[in-house]
Amino acid sequence: MVDEDRLTFGRAKECTICLDPGDAAISRIAGTITREGSVWWLTNASSTRPFAVADEYGFRSVLPPGRRVAVERPVTVLVDGSLAQHDLRLTPPSAPLPAGGPVAEPLTPAVPTEVGAAVVISAADRLAMVALFAGYLREPPQYDPHPRTYAAAAARLDWPRTTLVKRIEYLRARLDEAGVPGMTGHNALVGLAEYALSRELITRDDLRLLR
């Protein structure tokens, strides 16, 4: 870690690590790394955007807005932008972070972070996501952080598979158009799951909809 007690990263030019000042899909201050005593903490400083943390084995977890985690082993922070994914390698406590000093440039007016807040999520959209992502919401040992197949989710709802696919694809298209990263490509369902869970579009209480 760096010797200072605080490091910030995000799109704001005043951050210690400025990821991309022109990418409004990244929060102005996406995260902070601070020291409390001998413990370093990684905090999601955004009010809207999650980011992922991958441990030294490659296992990935999502850090929702406002949450923090102790950095006790080497981790990689993965921040999704609209055009690229930004990776930050954190190694406690002696190896330095790839950090530069704050950029000495005039502050620019804040640009709202694009998070798809204007996209209307219907009751049917929500039900479809609960069926697809129920594993994320269940308590152990039923906890399973992977999307179900379209066929399995559709069968759970007694819907035709094509109905579920069209609804989810249309939802992803609207979120993508609104600037939400991760809504296209081979990992799009995982991106949708992380977005829905971090924004609390679906919660554990919604499992009752499947009964």
Q: What does this entry show, briefly?
A:
The protein is α+β, with helices and mostly antiparallel strands.
Which helices and strands appear, and what pairs or packs with what?
Blueprint: E1 6-10, E2 17-18, E3 31-36, E4 39-44, E5 51-54, E6 60-63, E7 68-70, E8 75-80, E9 85-90, H1 123-132, H2 134-137, H3 150-157, H4 161-177, H5 188-198
Parallel strand pairs: 1-2
Antiparallel strand pairs: 1-3, 3-4, 4-7, 5-6, 5-8, 8-9
Helix pairs in contact: 1-3, 1-4, 3-4
Query: What structural class should be given to the helix and strand makeup?
Result: alpha+beta
Low-confidence stretches: 95-109
- State the end-to-end distance: 48 Å
Note the main sheet: 5 strands, mixed
Mean pLDDT: 86
Strand percent estimate: 15-25%
User: Can you count the beta strands?
Assistant: 9
Total of helices? 5
What percent of residues adopt helix (DSSP H or I)? 10-25%
Strand order of the largest sheet: 2-1-3-4-7
Question: Overall 3D geometry?
Answer: globular
> What is the rounded Rg?
19 Å
The topology string of helices and strands comes to EEEEEEEEEHHHHH
